Amino acid sequence: MNVRLRAPFPLGKPSWPTSVPRPPVEKRTGVHYDTDWSRSYAARLARAVILDDVLRPLVHVLGSPTVHGLDRIQDLDAPAVFAANHHSHLDTPLLLTSLPDRFRHKAQVAAAADYFFDSRVKSAASALTLGAIPMERTRINRRSSDLAADLLDDGWSLVIFPEGGRSPDGWAQDFRGGAAYLAIRCGRPLVPVHIEGTRKVQKKGKKLPTPVGGPLGRGPGVHVTFGPPLRPREGEDARRLAARLEATVAILADEGASDWWTARRRAADNTTPSLGGPDAGAWRRSWALGDHKRRSSSAGKRWP
């Protein structure tokens, strides 16, 4: 029989009286992580150096990016909500470094609290390098939405991925209403963004990236396309605005796969290819995904 002897207080930990209720343990990770420090002048200066002098060169080496549609947000007043499809961990630094300076250096990224904020070290790294704030993605969390809304009201732009996570197979998942809700609540424009090619660099489950485009990679590089800012129509709720956002990102994807005129013509005919891909088996979806190439000769065709 093993008997563990514990040193008495003050040499050891004091015992807790059984008649006194214990206070709740203060949580410091997940949605409870405090990111206020990451918006201090010193942290913002450090992040600007990281974004411009570390992440931007790294993104160019890995993806050789091409940015389209900056003219559509040229006259847009900050702050704004930038909502994009999501395929890879490269999406966040790619989108941040593609933003004009007036948005990039005062932007926060809505990041999954259960992934980027599951430990103190990862939380601090995410908040410092990307300006990330913890967002609950499995359910509605008042703390997360209030923080994002307060930042928008305070002049910070927000980068958010409405799918709630990276695509498991290369096709987009349904857009959730968080980005649309924040745009309506704060009265800020909602900018649709389509990102293409990052899955070839680092898809979900892959540990090491593979360069594409440029001298170090094969095939075309990655593309970022900004769409025209959306504002809620009279009587439009978050669900309907989220559906319009998803439809606009699909048009941007079609624009990249074909051309502006063809994409607009299909949008007018309500025949824009779905971001979610064909409703078919896994092999068929994978085959159709490989057939979707930017500005290819078969770009005018719909998914087979």
Indicate the topology.
Elements: H1 41-63, E1 66-68, E2 81-84, H2 91-98, H3 101-104, E3 107-112, H4 113-116, H5 120-130, E4 132-135, H6 142-153, E5 157-160, H7 178-186, E6 190-196, H8 198-201, E7 223-226, H9 238-257, H10 260-268, H11 282-290
Parallel strand pairs: 1-7, 2-5, 2-6, 3-4, 3-5
Antiparallel strand pairs: 6-7
Helix pairs in contact: 1-2, 6-7, 7-9, 9-10
Summary?
The chain has 304 residues and is α/β, with parallel strands linked by helices. 37% of the residues lie in helices and 11% in strands.
Structural account:
- The protein is of the alpha/beta class.
- The protein contains eleven helices and seven strands.
- The chain has one domain (30-279): Glycerol-3-phosphate (1)-acyltransferase (3-Layer(aba) Sandwich).
- Strands 1-7-6-2-5-3-4 form a seven-stranded mixed sheet, with helices on both faces.
- The radius of gyration is 22 Å and the shape is globular.
List descriptors.
seven-stranded mixed sheet; 11 helices; alpha/beta; 304 residues; Glycerol-3-phosphate (1)-acyltransferase; 7 strands; 37% helix; single chain
